[in-house]
């Protein structure tokens, strides 16, 4: 089983979106308890012991991204790729 997790590393509902119903100056609140650490999917998978885990950043190093995909596919067992992707709403392109 291969699993691909794509994340911009920030919650998608952090106030970057606005609709006609959003009051001017509204600030979205995180559903996560303030000060609580984010869950680390990679460490949770590593704790199983027989899982291939790779963390990559799309657009940072294409060869490393390709290598991680190929290694995950060739791994005899479950694999998880955690892919950090940029988001235009965060000011990166």
Question: How would you characterize the overall build of this protein?
Answer:
It is a single chain. The protein is an alpha/beta fold and 93 residues long. It contains two helices and three strands, in the order E-H-E-H-E. A three-stranded parallel beta sheet has the order 1-3-2. Helix 2 links the parallel strand 2 (52-57) and strand 3 (79-84). The longest helix is centred in the last third of the chain and has 13 residues, at 62-74. 6% of the residues are buried. The model is unreliable at 10-15 (pLDDT under 50).
Task: Please describe the topology of this protein.
Blueprint: E1 2-7, H1 41-46, E2 52-57, H2 62-74, E3 79-84
Parallel strand pairs: 1-3, 2-3
Summarize the structure.
The chain is α/β, with parallel strands linked by helices. Helix content is 20%, strand content 19%.
């Amino acid at each position: 089983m291969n699993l691909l997790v794509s994340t911009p590393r920030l919650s998608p509902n952090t106030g970057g979106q606005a609709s006609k119903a959003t009051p001017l100056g509204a600030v979205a609140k995180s559903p996560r308890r303030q000060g609580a650490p984010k869950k680390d999917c990679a460490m949770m998978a590593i704790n199983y012991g027989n899982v291939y885990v790779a963390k990559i950043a799309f657009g940072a190093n294409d060869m490393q991204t390709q290598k991680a995909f190929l290694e995950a596919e060739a791994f005899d067992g479950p694999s998880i790729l955690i892919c950090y992707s940029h988001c235009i709403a965060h000011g990166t392109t």
